[in-house]
């Protein structure tokens, strides 16, 4: 299936993950015992997926992740963090560096199998989408991306249905996932609903404004009430009534 690099200083975790990946997912597995060893194996083995422990000697998971993302060749390789429950706050920070998912320790066979299955489905979808984009770009058919983040699934589906013929619509329901998608997909248009969980719309917009791509991004606040308050004018390019939002991009009046 995939060639996978597992980086963890605990030999039991390395063995557990490796056996599960080989037996259930037919992966070729390479292991490393710390971040420095992991970077060496990354160069030698050229894996397609990386599992990376957060807490390790010599070079920890966050330092290793930053090193991988700074390398042009590996900046998009799928990375999954292995973390203890007490470190979940750390995962929240590293998600901004392009981690696609995480697995919580202690590892239990059934739960870990289910998580890995979900993760590999996500990786498969990502790779299929990348291939579609590559073909579309080669044929001169690449669409502008719009990221829509809103807790209302019906609104998101309606938004996508009305605009997907002209735009590539990427949608999700939380600010944390939305920021992760933004860092990976780099859309030029971002639409943020109200009261987003995990990372609210104001914090999301602040993250975008603080990024190096700020000048290229247009941020729309999608609301029931379009009254401007506080720092709205500095965070958002436009505040739009929810029922009229799709008309901004469809050419309707």
Concise account of the structure shown:
The chain is α/β, with parallel strands linked by helices and 253 residues long. The protein has two domains: 3-131, 3-Layer(aba) Sandwich (Rossmann fold), CATH 3.40.50; 143-250, Rossmann fold (3-Layer(aba) Sandwich).
Spatial order of strands in the largest sheet: 2-1-3-4-5
The name of the CATH superfamily of the largest domain reads Response regulator
Mean pLDDT over the full residue set: 86
What's the architecture of the largest domain in CATH terms? Answer: 3-Layer(aba) Sandwich
- Low-confidence parts lasting 5 or more residues at pLDDT below 50? none
Number of helices: 10
Rg, nearest Å: 20 Å
Distance between the termini: 50 Å
Percent of sequence in beta strands: 15-25%
Residues in helix, %: 40-55%
Give the number of domains: 2
Structural class based on helices, strands and sheet pairing: alpha/beta
Order of helices and strands: EHEHEHEHEHEHEHEHEHEH
**Main sheet characteristics:** 5 strands, parallel
CATH class of the largest domain: Alpha Beta
Specify the overall morphology: elongated
